Amino acid sequence: MLEHTRLNSVRPRRVVVLGGSGFIGTHLVKEFKGSGIETREISSSNIDLTASGATMELGETVQRDDTLVFAACLTPDKGNDLATLMKNLIMAENVGLFLENHGCAHIIYISTDAVYKDGVSLVRENSPCDPASLYGLAQLAREKMMAYSAAKAGIPLAVLRPCGVYGFGDTHNGYGPNRFLRKAVAEGTISLFGQGEETRDHIFIGDVCKLIRLCAEKVSAGMLNLATGRAYSFAEVAELVCQSMDKTLKIENLPRGGPITHKHFDITMMLKAFPSISFTSLEEGLKRTLAQMTEGHG
């Protein structure tokens, strides 16, 4: 459950985004700056969070009245092995030590729905966590590390677990809207596993960033899934991609590598935390993403 420690929204004095050059981080920096909030983005070229001196460098960069957004992570496309898992844990260790030794006003940790047990068809914030991947395991461990250090330092912590995020600039190329759009533009085809029967929730990057900003403005604490509450089959997503391009694409049906599973989200807690929130429709989000892809932006 996410709770707001401020009744009214107040701009943070400054926001520091760890992972500011990543997919979510890049959009998030634009979101904060576009709202008139002073923002500092930190990437691995500024501070290597896996290095032994990272805690000290964070202490020299992040001020006590800053809001810290921890969005830096090595995603599966960067590696899906024990070495990558350990690097992700080292990042969290260094950020945790920074919280304990230096501190900040508020921390928002960006996690993932991969922490949940596979096969749970209706996901809630209290659904069982039993990650099937090393990435999900790392994220769950990092959540607990942040909770330990934030509690020790007395800093409000918000843990946000997005479902599949799509939008311009995605580097993960996961199965779903991002990959479908990219392959449709490049090759005129979309590849589906089986008949694309599985259903999933997909959230537009702009909505994710808006929710993170709202959490920063209300100094929210607790846990929240970031999802729309509307699940689509991958076949439906492929059809919407065809409609967004206003052309017929070739659909390739690939052999299925596992059983058909569905994943929906109960967004009761989302609506309780943000009663007036509205989400970008998948149709509109795909159109916006496609427009940026084809207008010389990538």
Describe this structure in words.
- The chain has 298 residues and is α/β, with parallel strands linked by helices.
- 39% of the residues lie in helices and 20% in strands.
- It has nine helices and 14 strands.
- It has helices at residues 23-34, 54-61, 82-101, 134-153, 177-187, 205-217, 234-245, 268-273, 282-294, and strands at residues 2-4, 15-18, 39-42, 67-70, 106-110, 122-123, 157-162, 164-166, 189-193, 199-204, 220-226, 231-233, 250-254, 264-265.
- A seven-stranded mixed sheet has the order 1-11-7-5-4-2-3, sandwiched between helices. It has a three-stranded mixed sheet with strand order 8-10-12. Strands 6-14 form a two-stranded parallel ribbon.
- Helix 1 packs across helix 6 (205-217) and helix 5 packs across helix 9.
- It is globular and about 55 Å long.
